[in-house]
Write a structure and sequence with these properties.
The structure holds 2 protein chains of 2 kinds.
Chain A: H1 2-46, H2 52-56, H3 70-101, H4 106-120, H5 123-136, H6 150-174, H7 178-186, H8 191-219, H9 223-226, H10 246-255, H11 259-288
Helix pairs in contact in A: 1-11, 3-6, 3-8, 3-10, 4-6, 5-6, 6-8, 7-8, 8-11, 10-11
Chain B: E1 5-14, E2 17-27, E3 32-36, H1 43-50, E4 60-68, E5 71-72, H2 79-85, E6 86-89, H3 101-110, H4 117-130, H5 134-137, H6 151-164, E7 169-173, H7 181-194, E8 199-203, H8 207-213, E9 216-221, E10 224-230, H9 231-236, H10 241-247
Parallel strand pairs in B: 3-8, 3-9, 6-7, 7-8
Antiparallel strand pairs in B: 1-2, 1-4, 4-5, 9-10
Classes of the chains: A mainly alpha, B alpha/beta.
Chain lengths: ~300, ~250
């Protein structure tokens, strides 16, 4: 009698265990499938148009075939560099304030709320806002303002990075055990030094992940650039002038009536994704070197 | 060399909770002094008042006088200066997880701007030898993280880290309570050796440990110090009934 009950129970347990495992595998597949599908489709559509010209030529005038997106790749790199220069330090600084200095204060709550709202602002609105503030308005004594420019595009992307970087930095800093902070203070290390050299350093893998997420997100943004960086069919490194960007170029080419441009747009989308993956992997590789055996 | 500690009318609060009430005692230089008592009796708060770690909690408050050597620590100096002279070892080993063994030991000096490499090498070696860890880690000093060591090794690493800044006093808040018996006995041996050079104050729940390592013992109960005397007297012939009840296991 008892033995039968026991057998029945263990069978039920095995059944539950297997179904939960199956469900979680199914969920994983659902998560990964769209990504794989997009990538496969991009390779299918875009790989055939990829050649050396794509990376070395600028767009050909309407009617001529061939040409590439070298100027757009370069423009995107410049825009993202500028955006990161704004978004990463401001975001990390804000996160440090929220986690280390402002904890529990009204100001910190206001900053946290603002960051969350900013995170939810549609990117097109960010583009319009930057357009109104520094593209349309000429701010006296400040160069780069009063006209379309790469600078304004970088600012729009940079502002979009801030909330993500700020909130992940805060979360990661709060995960650093209190004992680690106490150890530093107990050695007579001043608080600011302990925050920068111990707490932030301990949380740095997570903070870097946050920065990469923000970077990857804005790298593909088109809307904020329409009113700011505007796009450019020629080679340009001048941030004071309109500049080309990969997402903008894809947008323009995809909406055009020419098959040749459609193919280039597919290739551009593929290159954009591959470049983002490469950039993220490179940062991960560089920052993971020198990590010690057994470090968490 | 260690210095003596003179505590007069020390009171401490967490918010409205009066955790330490009118503590008076003299801790002798270059000896180990043990503080015993049930959980929540205020002994941890007491040691945290000796290096001004108590006040890192925003709701904490403290009154009274603590003299360490010739320094009135709540009047004459800033907290960071006190903490360089009064080292602390915590209950759970807390090495810096991102740092190598070497950097952990050197951290107190490096983070305070000290950068003479040759001198640092010497100090790291001496501190690790003093904490009886050198032979176990000398080949992996810069290769392995402090977090990769075993619990007992990590605690000795934390002791080395505290010793590297050359303190006069070493506060130990239940340094062996998270460790196995073998590691515990290593830590106790260490305290025995170190007390000739440093003034050691050790909080412990383990009464045999107090009896083994300390010359003087104080018994805390409900935020007050009930009795402070030589360890031998506390454990064989305590003057206070409450001390006797506690050490004979009648409560706590």
């Amino acid at each position: 009698m008892n033995e039968e009950k026991f057998k029945f129970r263990s069978r039920m347990r095995a059944l539950t265990d297997n179904s939960v495992t199956a469900l979680s595998i199914l969920a994983t597949v659902i998560v990964v499938a769209p990504l794989v599908a997009i990538f496969v489709y991009l390779v299918y559509k875009g790989a055939s148009s990829l050649n050396l010209d794509f990376f070395t030529q600028i767009p050909k005038p309407v009617g001529e075939t061939g040409g590439g997106m070298a100027n757009a790749i370069w423009g995107s790199a410049l825009l993202l560099l500028l955006a990161s220069t704004i978004g990463v330090p401001v975001g990390i600084g804000g996160g440090i304030f929220l986690a280390e200095y402002g904890r529990g204060t009204k100001l910190a709550n206001a900053v946290r709320f603002t960051a969350d709202v900013l995170n939810g602002v549609p990117s097109i609105v960010m583009g319009v806002a930057v357009y109104a503030l520094i593209v349309k308005a000429h701010i006296p004594f400040l160069p780069f303002t009063g006209h379309f420019s790469g600078f304004s595009g970088g600012v729009a992307l940079g502002i979009m990075m801030i909330p993500t970087v700020c909130r992940t930095t805060e979360e990661m800093l709060l995960m650093v055990p209190h004992a680690v902070r106490e150890a530093a203070l107990g050695l007579g290390v001043p608080n600011w030094r302990s925050v920068l050299s111990i707490t932030v350093k301990t949380a740095s893998p997570g903070i870097i992940t946050g920065c990469m997420l923000a970077f990857a997100r804005v790298a593909g943004e088109t809307a904020p650039l329409i009113f700011t960086a505007l796009g450019n069919s020629f080679w340009s490194s001048n941030l004071n002038q309109p500049i080309a960007a990969l997402p903008l170029q894809i947008y323009v080419y995809a909406l055009s009536p020419y098959d040749d441009w459609h193919r280039l747009a597919w290739a551009g989308a593929l290159v954009l994704i591959v470049l983002i993956v490469l950039a993220v992997s490179l940062v991960r590789y560089v920052t993971s070197r020198g990590v010690l055996k057994g470090a968490s | 060399m260690g210095v003596g500690i003179e505590v007069t009318n020390l009171n401490a609060w967490y918010g409205t909770n009066h955790t330490l009430q009118d503590i008076n005692l003299n801790i002798p230089a270059n000896h180990a002094t043990a503080l015993i008592g049930p959980s929540g009796c205020g002994k941890s708060t007491f040691v945290r008042c000796l290096n001004r770690m108590h006040e890192t909690n925003p709701i904490a408050r403290v009154t009274g006088t603590v003299r360490i050597g010739d320094l009135d620590i709540y009047v004459d100096a800033k907290p960071v200066e006190i903490r360089r002279r009064v080292g602390m070892v915590f209950q759970r080993p807390n090495p810096f997880p991102t740092m190598s063994i070497y950097d952990n030991v050197a951290s107190g000096l490096k983070l305070n701007g000290y950068s003479n490499r040759r001198a640092l090498d010497e100090i790291v070696e001496k501190s690790l030898k003093n904490s009886a860890l050198w032979d176990e880690v000398k080949d992996d000093l810069k290769k392995k993280s402090g977090a990769s060591l075993s619990g007992g090794q990590q605690q000795r690493l934390c002791i080395a880290r505290a010793l590297a800044v050359d303190p006069e006093v070493l506060l130990m808040d239940e340094p062996a309570s998270a460790l196995d018996p073998v590691s515990t006995s290593k830590i106790e041996d260490l305290i025995f050796q170190l007390k000739s050079q440093y003034t050691i104050v050790i909080v412990t729940h383990n009464m045999q440990q107090a009896a083994r390592v300390a010359e003087k013992t104080g018994f805390f109960l409900n935020g007050r110090m009930v009795e402070f005397d030589s360890t031998h007297k506390i454990f064989t012939n305590p003057s206070d009934k409450r001390t006797e009840d506690y050490i004979t296991g009648r409560f706590g």
